[in-house]
Amino acid sequence: MKYLDIADFNIINPVLSFETSGENRVNGRLEAYSCKFAGADKKLYKFFENKFQEDLLEASSLSPEQSLSHMTSPFGPLTETSSRKVLFYLIATLNASFPDYDFRFITKEQFTHEPDAMSVINSINSTLFTAGNTTAIQRYRLWEVVDKVIDLQECSVYSYQPEGDSDPFAENGSIWSFHYFFFNRHLKRVVYFS
């Protein structure tokens, strides 16, 4: 995944990290990535495809119902290359965003396909408002900037729910975190918001 240096994101990101009135700290950030392989992505994709072949072999020994469940994902049937690529892109985005972590072994069950971009936008807005930050949304026109980069109408949105030590924020004593991926298949681009 190639990091895209978006000038407007560089302006908004400092506003997404702030102190709350209760002396807590919010560390937010927006990052954009191209779905072009960069660095270790080819090696990761090969690992990922080999792991899928092992899973496929395992699924063939299950009952038809279990096999179907085993190959179903928030991205579509994992028997389809396009579905596996979406999962790969999200994992590669996490690896690029948190280079000190290895997300190769997170599972499809840790991702959710969100119903639509608007429900995610409302959730993020509510979280920012509750934490006391209206500046990013109002003054910096957060969603207009994101829309310009990713075209929200054409996005599929996924969330990631880390488990235990796969959460890069767990060791900081965080109270909560969110991880949203706005994926535009046509632009071959992911915007990651955490």
UniProtKB/TrEMBL annotation:
GO terms for cellular component: nucleus. One of its GO terms (biological process) is negative regulation of transcription by RNA polymerase III. GO terms for molecular function: RNA polymerase III core binding. It comes from the Eukaryota. Coiled coil: none annotated. It holds the Pfam family Maf1. Gene3D superfamilies: Repressor of RNA polymerase III transcription Maf1 (3.40.1000.50). InterPro entries: Maf1, Maf1_sf. PANTHER family: REPRESSOR OF RNA POLYMERASE III TRANSCRIPTION MAF1 (PTHR22504), REPRESSOR OF RNA POLYMERASE III TRANSCRIPTION MAF1 HOMOLOG (PTHR22504:SF0). This is Repressor of RNA polymerase III transcription Maf1. The lineage of its organism: Eukaryota, Fungi, Fungi incertae sedis, Zoopagomycota, Kickxellomycotina.
